[in-house]
Amino acid sequence: MAARFEELDWRQTPIGEISLRRRRDPVVDRDVYEVKLGDEYLMSSLFTVAEVELARLALADLAGEELDVVVGGLGLGYTAHAVLRDPRVRSLIVVEALADVIGWHQRGLVPGGEALVGDPRCRLVAGDFFALTAAAGPDPAAPGRRFDAVLVDIDHSPGHVLHQSHAAFYQPDGLRHLAGHLRPGGVFALWSDDPPEAGFTAALGRVFPQVRTEVVTFRNPLLGTDSANTVYLAQTQAGPPDEPGQPTPG
Which has fewest Cβ within 10 Å: 84, 90, 95, 153? Predict the structure, then answer.
């Protein structure tokens, strides 16, 4: 019988101590995988509904075939797996700041990790998503490349970031950089642990012509109540495929 609790990996990183743990949860009677940064919980395999919805909602807003997608933040891989379940997806780049997290998937330490690594459409990139987005784009191998969708699940929320260097991304100038990496009609989607924030929604509205929020509710078996996350969705102006994206002036 497997141990009721096991620390699968631990590393000191530039943003603090990160650990991957597996425990047997008696409430749901299954193994639960958790990632902690210091004493703070970053993610859990108990709560994945919103991570999956992040991908589903973003891709549902896209027309056409042969979609090229970026996911900022790998984590336990649920958003990436959800993207790859869409048969229209031609390529997926997942940008993860911590090489050790990519290693968890390569070593099969998390469920589905080897399947993700083995999908020929998927490429895992070790890099700072925010720094790449502010420069030539999220694909270091192809500067200036544009995408149909960019999905981000890194910080807790626009107002609760893991590192202060991320904060500029959530301002209009940072969002304009992001919009420039999208094709016409492209979608930016962001996961947040907090309720919709009027300030961030307004910032999106200064850059993108179409903006909305979706509150995703799910059952919390530990509390016996419903919990909720937010998905922000923003879309560039549609146009001919060879035109650049059209963020609105702010």
Answer: 90
Percent of the chain that is helix, strand, coil (3-state, to 5): 25, 35, 40
How many whole angstroms separate alpha carbon 1 and alpha carbon 31? 12
Superfamily of domain 47-235: Vaccinia Virus protein VP39 (3.40.50.150)
Q: Determine the distance from the C-alpha atom of residue 99 to the mean position of all C-alpha atoms in its chain, rounded to a whole number.
A: 16
Report the distance separating Cα 197 and Cα 229, nearest Å: 12
pLDDT digit string (tens) for the chain, length 250 residues: 456 888 998 888 777 889 999 998 887 788 999 998 888 888 888 889 999 999 999 999 999 899 999 999 999 999 999 999 999 999 999 999 999 999 999 999 999 999 999 999 999 999 999 999 999 999 999 999 999 999 999 999 999 998 899 999 999 999 999 999 999 999 999 999 999 999 999 999 999 999 999 999 998 877 778 999 999 999 999 876 544 434 433 3
52/207 Cα distance (integer angstroms): 26
User: Which DSSP string corresponds to 193-237?
Assistant: SSPP-HHHHHHHHTT-SEEEEEEEEEEETTTTEEEEEEEEEEEPP
Parse the chain into domains and list their residue ranges.
47-235
Give the CA distances from residue 111 to residues 65, 78, 114, 196, 229, in Å, rounded to whole numbers and listed in that order. Answer: 29, 10, 8, 31, 23
> For 247, which DSSP code?
P
- In single-letter form, the type of residue at position 210 comes to Q
Q: Which amino acid is at 127?
A: G
Q: Report residue 174: phi and psi, to 5°.
A: -65, -40
